[in-house]
Amino acid sequence: VIQAVFFGICVLTDLSSLLTKGNDSQEQERQLKKLISLRDWMMAVLAFPIGVFVVMMFWSIYIYDRELVYPKLLDNFIPAWLNHGMHTTVLPFILIEMRTTHHQYPSRSCGLAAVCTFAVGYILWVCWIHHVTGVWVYPLLEYLSPGVKIIFFVAVTIIINISYLLGEVLNNYIWDTQK
């Protein structure tokens, strides 16, 4: 969903840029700058770090034991192409986006705070779903003791923060910018 919303905003930004080109309306220019700012923030804080994390974690765990993240039973309901759409194609598309469009990253402290807020919010949502249904949305969590779950959740948050920093470094390298 994050990737779909992000790329939708990218298309909207590009269309708005094309439609307002040559137009002297300061209001349209101001709105376009807001849209570009939202696009850049989403890339930095959500699309890149979460996209990299999902691909890395999903396929690492899948290779180890697919039943922990994507039980064979799901093959009956979710075709292979859709699984790859959710867990594979995210990475090449986000790297293409990073290479073709310069994104202005927020300050490091604001970016990391936003990434942490998202990660903690998502973890709380996963725990809430378990609390209400009694089922973990990720079967792996069923096998972890409460203490190990806490360590796992902290490690996940750290990895997502490292992914954010990787995105910032990669963006600066590609576009040869220094902070």
Jot down its keywords.
single chain, 179 residues, 6 helices, 75% helix, transmembrane, membrane, ADTRP_AIG1, Androgen-induced 1, transmembrane helix
Walk me through the structure.
InterPro entries: ADTRP_AIG1. The chain crosses the membrane at residues 41-64, 76-98, 110-138, 150-170. Belongs to the AIG1 family. It holds the Pfam family Far-17a_AIG1. The chain is mainly α and 179 residues long. It has one domain (1-177). Helix content is 75%, strand content 0%. It has helices at residues 2-20, 26-65, 80-87, 90-100, 108-133, 146-175. α2 (26-65) runs antiparallel to α4. The relative contact order is 0.13. The model has no long low-confidence stretch (mean pLDDT 93).
Question: What is shown here, in short?
Answer:
It contains 6 helices and no strands. It is mainly α and 179 residues long.
- Count up the helices: 6
- Termini gap: 31 Å
Largest sheet: none
What is the C-alpha radius of gyration, as a whole number of Å? 19 Å
Low-pLDDT stretches: none
What percentage of residues falls in helices of 4 or more residues?
Answer: over 70%
Can you give the mean pLDDT?
A: 93
- Name the quaternary structure: single chain
Structural class: mainly alpha
The share of residues in extended strands comes to under 5%
Total strand count, please? 0
Q: Please write the string of helix (H) and strand (E) elements.
A: HHHHHH
Number of domains: 1
How would the global form be characterised? elongated
Topology overview:
Layout: H1 2-20, H2 26-65, H3 80-87, H4 90-100, H5 108-133, H6 146-175
Helix pairs in contact: 1-2, 2-4, 2-5, 2-6, 5-6
Transmembrane segments: 41-64, 76-98, 110-138, 150-170
Pfam family, one: Far-17a_AIG1
Keywords: Membrane, Transmembrane, Transmembrane helix
